Amino acid sequence: MPARLRQVTGSNFAYQHLPFDTFLDDAAALGREKLELWGIAPHLHIPQLNNADARSVRRRIEARGLAAYCLTPEQVMYPVNVASPVDWLRTQSIAMFHRAAELCAELGAELLLLTPGRGRENEPVEAAWHRSVDAIGAIAAYADTLGVTCVLEPLQRVESNLVNDFRTLAAMLDEIGDARLGAVLDTVAMAVAEESVDDAFTALGHRIRHVHLVDGRPTGHLAWGDGQLPLTEYLRAFERHDYEGYMTFELFGDGTYALDPRSAVERCHAAVRECADG
Q1: What is the pLDDT of residue 1?
Q2: What is the CATH number of the domain that holds 39?
């Protein structure tokens, strides 16, 4: 198998209307080894999942020769916001991520993916920034005690008014000051911010621990070829920077991928294989 394809995880993004075991069967059949698990109902709703449930999920994963690598709780569509000025919402959001870190340990996943949240549009950005820094720092510190590493992903401006590019991501990581806290590179958010893979490594270097490799126009989180982003160039840039971490096709699109997710995933895999062979 080409080295690049070995870096591609299996993920239940776009499988939300199918049983979780269907996703696991497909991931195994498609030769995946590591999984990024989207923590969303009905598959893995973090507040609902107890330790016994998580251990059952881990057994089902490992029975297929797979291993959980990253847990990504839903935190944009769900009422989760670590930078919220509403005390109860911020407190419950932090508690949700603490619980997610515990579930990472039960699942054997080494990474927990976080996003910065957002403040109100009519308040000073600095106030929400400090709330986000404090919350993410506390979550990462708790995860550290469990042997789990947190990674922080920048979001598009419509999703967050705090961290939208690699410069602000680096600034937040520096301010938090946790040496284990890493960065996520999302190719759609990167394109929307008019940045490049080279920009990411200039700003973040070895702190890049995970990649969401998706097509877009430039938005959309599309399967390879359904958008206009230069994914082949991105892969070559990752090679130039000796990136050896994992990459996930985070497919949402317009909702049609959920009708037949395996076909969309297969197209992505074929494109990566073609790049490796070319």
Answers
A1: 62
A2: 3.20.20.150
